[in-house]
Amino acid sequence: MSATSGAPTGAARSAARAYRPVLRAGVRIGPPLLRGPRTVHLIRHPATGAVSEVGTKEHFVISRLDGTRNLDDLAPAYAARFGRRLAEESWNRLLGLLGARGLLEGAPDPPAPARPAPDVTFWRGTRRMVADADATTARLHRALRPLLHPAVQLPLLAAVSAMVLVLAVHAAELGHGAAVLIRHPVVLGAAALFLWFSITVHELAHGVAAQHFGGHVAEIGLRWRFPAAMLYCTVDDYLFIPGRRARLVIAGAGAYVNLVLLLPFGIWWSTLPATDPASPLLGGLLLLGVIQALSNLVPLPPLDGYRMLGHLLGTVHLAPETRTYLAMRRTGSEAASAYPRRARLIYTAYGTGSVLLLLLAVAGTCTVAFLLLT
Fold first, then answer.
1. How far apart are CA 32 and CA 152, in angstroms?
2. Angle 301-138-159 (CA atoms, 0-180°, nearest 5)?
3. Cβ–Cβ under 8 Å, residues 157 and 163
4. Ordered strands of the 124-128 beta sheet
5. Are strands 38-44 and 28-29 parallel, antiparallel or unpaired?
6. pLDDT tier at 120, thresholds 50, 70, 90
7. Rounded distance, CA 53 to CA 369, Å?
8. What pTM does this model have?
9. Cis peptide before 146 (omega within 30 of 0)
């Protein structure tokens, strides 16, 4: 058959087998993540930011593309790992896919992923507020870096933990203070302004923490749902930051900073006698602030606690994958049996826990509203 008929010639096949590909500089490969019944790795293009998803077999090959290995070099290691040799067809198909996505050295950049046009109205929308969010958070990180040293953070963490425990012991007193606070509109407005400011600092804390661990902040902007408006900070590569601890710290940084901002008020409140008129007002502020901070740690989307649980379990898209698996079980689909034991345990436990958390949240909200109103 001639070379023009579409079939590779012997010379072409030999060249393909001898080819020693190398990944493009800056390509980032994420850790193994559970998604449905599979373990996947995410790969991020350094220029466009496009993210691809590959399985464990593809990751085994891709992670070894350093320019020193060809198909014959990789095939024995692949066979030892997976019990079968890497087929030449699979090798060529994988390299073709990597080249088309611009992940190999010398391959052209693919088009950047299209960004949907923002749906901006008076009632809802988002607007970018900073031209270079990464540079802005980098400057903040440089200014705050001395405060991020363990010698500062460990005592601060201990103080925040002690404050939360003390406030929990005095929960009834704080509840009374919240009832007093809502009867003072001016003070309540000041408290609301402080809590709004706390949300803004919460978002920037995610960006500063990402900078501390080598992450990239893609966007800082304003999101509004009339009449509420708040700042947001998007870290676009936190799943590629090495180390589970780093990813947990980035996700939890906002709630932690919220509690740190409450610390001076907690100290002030603890020094006042119960008869002081400011004591119940401060108690009400502390209750609202602690609820705001800790509610973000609830492991339900889109809260920070949901991201933290995903990092802790090593999963991606935990909530939608849980719904998919539970729907298969409910309908008796045979596909549910393909899930490994770990996946079945995680999705069943998260589905059950989510229902319980939602019921507790509804009951708690109704109880707090009733107590404040009565």
1. 33
2. 65
3. no
4. 124-128, 217-225, 228-235
5. antiparallel
6. confident
7. 45
8. 0.88
9. no
Which among 172, 42, 184, 168 has a CA at the least distance from the CA of 101? 42
**DSSP letter assigned to residue 315:** B
CA 363 to chain centre: 28
What one-letter code names the amino acid at 373?
A: L
| 2 secondary structure, DSSP code | -
Of 51, 27, 10, nearest in space to 236 by CA? 51
State which H helix or E strand residue 111 sits in: none
Element of type H or E holding 40: strand 38-44
CB 223 within 8 A of CB 126: yes
Provide the 3-class DSSP secondary structure of residue 117. coil
Residue 187 has pLDDT above 80, yes or no: yes
Cα 68 from Cα 29, distance rounded (Å): 19
**Does position 14 have pLDDT exceeding 70, yes or no?**
no
Q: What is the CA radius of gyration of the chain?
A: 26
